[in-house]
Amino acid sequence: MSKIKVMDEVLANKIAAGEVVEKCMNVVKELVENSIDAKATQIDISLVESGIKEIRVRDNGIGMDPTDAEMAFQRHATSKLKKLDDLFTIESLGFRGEALPSIASVSNMVLKTSDGNVGTLVTVNGGKDLKVERCDLENGTTITVSNLFYNTPVRLKYLKNPYVELSYIVEYVNKMALSYPDVKFSLKNNDKIIFQTDGNGDQLKVVYEIYGSDITKKMIPISNENDDYMIHGFISFPEVTKGNRNSITTLVNGRVIKNNELNKCIVDCYHTYIHKDRYPIIILNIDVDPVLIDINIHPTKMDIKFSKMDSLKDLIIKSFTEKLEELTLIPEVTVRDSYSISEVRKQIISKEDKEEKEEKEDIQYEEIQLDFEIQEENKKIEKKKQKELEDNLPFEIEEEKTPRIKKMIPRGVVLLTYIIAENEDGMYLIDQHAAAERINYEKVLKEMKENKQVVDFLVPFKVELRKEEFILAKERLPLLEPYGFNIDEFGFNTILVRSHPSWIPDEKSGDIIKRIIDLIVEKGNFDFDQFIWRMAATTACRMSVMAGDYISEEDQEWILENIRYCENPFTCPHGRPTIIAYSKYELEKLFKRQLD
Prior knowledge:
This protein is of the alpha+beta class. The chain has three domains: 9-200, Histidine kinase-like ATPase, C-terminal domain (Heat Shock Protein 90, 2-Layer Sandwich), CATH 3.30.565; 212-326, Ribosomal Protein S5, domain 2; 402-596, formyl-coa transferase, domain 3, CATH 3.30.1540.
């Protein structure tokens, strides 16, 4: 008797549900994507107990006729693919035909839809007992999913607590609102509105609704393109960071995706601007011909593969780097008075106060939007003036390095760490180690590229390694040779460093070389560019004056003058700030010389 049999359809759907539906957010995702594909301009999401008890998604899309409404619960039934070639030019969010039958197999589902001609009501319980009836002609589709995982108790057991499940849903809806700013989204939990947008097509307004005015003011618009890709969106000032990668929103042709290679490329653009354990806030829209991407990687459709990935990465790096280099990134101290603090602490807002608050928020957002427009206009005017000036010069000018910061005069040092300085704009606190480290870092990077001189040890410098480290060292040490290192094997677990590049100071050469060897024998994927940056940062750190060291007035002047001409004078190589500004206005406000 044959042992191999075709699976029961309900069982197959439950297995598919294990891939498509892991948590409540996945249900919301699949239903919202269907609404977008149905050309909805308004999507209302209502939850009961964070979706664990009930999820309802209502849209005003094109709806379905009775035949399509019933067919939608069949596995691999879809309106988005007709033939094999369509798989390579997918423009819709959904296409696999697995979502509805998978969700219906692990819940109680009610679908109410109308295409304007006839209304249809479909009910399914645990993938069985499908019932089709007539109903009213309300345009669009409403799908209600209740008792999720009621018939798969193991999966139900591993649902997170309601707060965690709700956080996943809010995060996803935020990203969909950023992807489709022309769609009006509303999210409620237990009849309480959590998030909503007005669908006016302004992505910056959605950023404002999600992050608030303070962060929106610190977002930078970007836009660029090459032969293969077009990118646009917003990136944050380096001082605005989060503790995880969830703050990086990547949208490809309107689809929310997660791609580790892209995330790494984006974070690398902020190298030396932010600390290694912090992440910028990014909203990156990528528009590309569907032929150049493959969406059919995983049933959740959140990971995709790119053709010409190098072209996309080059575009991102070029766009982000140029934008960051344009900015003055000195964080300013903000003074809050007692009135503003008490306002923040208010928990109960009357209806009149709420209306007044919403009106103030609209005004505040308009001010932010105007500020962006003024900045862009000023840049255009400045570029035009510069071009006119260069065109009218009777001779060619030699390119000089322009200081990024106005000249500062030192006024002393506090705690043997922070230099106090001033200029006409206000007062500055400069971290003597971070600033010196930045200066030496850029000097070392330049020397590594340009200076090939080496210094020989009179006695070779010996470094002993563990066996697993020695194996990695044998593979990677040759990468150091072009930078002036002469290193030989000595026995099975020892290496001899016979010479080092001249940019490593003799008095600290042993300490620096040991640290460089530690970096090169670290386990994991070896990224050579990252290694070079870290090697330069390590060398600069060991070369620089430390916190707690006494420095003379001449040393202070040297640091203040050289930091002005750095390519990035605002952070040390590890992403810590070098300078904090106290504007004249903020100082006068502190001492009550300036009253609002």
